[in-house]
Amino acid sequence: xxxxxxxxxxxxxxxxxxxxxxxxxxxxxxxxxxxxxxxxxxxxxxxxxxxxxxxxxxxxxxxxxxxxxxxxxxxxxxxxxxxxxxxxxxxxxxxxxxxxxxxxxxxxxxxxxxxxxxxxxxxxxxxxxxxxxxxxxxxxxxxxxxxxxxxxxxxxxxxxxxxxxxxxxxxxxxxxxxxxxxxxxxxxxxxxxxxxxxxxxxxxxxxxxxxxxxxxxxxxxxxxxxxxxxxxxxxxxxxxxxxxxxxxxxxxxxxxxxxxxxxxxxxxxxx
Length: 271
Prior knowledge:
Shape: globular
Oligomer: single chain
Structural class: alpha/beta
Order of helices and strands: EHEHEHEHEHEHEHH
Number of helices: 8
């Protein structure tokens, strides 16, 4: 149940160990979010993320201590941060996994879908290509359908999906990743219209280059930003009817120009 200011009190994050997810949760907790469930495959990474989040609120919390299941020993003034198992690849069990998350957390105000796979763009390895597609498109679609069903049943809520500017106009250099983001971005635009009548708002985040562990080995591009910049943009958009979130906002103009370029020019760009 949102508070009197319309701010989320309970949040489910699918892909709970991502840098953008952690930054977003910290920002939400600063606005009085009380209950968080970080879901993902690797318990050690989830525990680390939970401890990082709690340590940002309670500096005395030892980061090496087990993530409280998470907060039974803490006072009621400290947000509860739980962890749960979720596997984006295991679509057959998405219904059960997401249902369990909702059951564990109770009514959920906001669901953040933050998982994704960058891949290595090796077209000679079809299995690698399909893993990226399966995660970034099929996996997200499967989650969206299950999450929307749960939110509709409880009477509404909000969803944030991490897309990318890489999907706005797909480049040869990131064909696999970019096309998977283009696919989920398009699906989300239509899905946002479909579920609006169910009291559900869906926001699509299109970040440019963000400094995260996923991009650590890559050369930063112009207008690069930090996870906290994405988190701020997300939190500022919650509660509004805005569907597309560009981070930073100026990158929208860049990609409007790129979209308008003839193919003969676009293919010669060093991007």
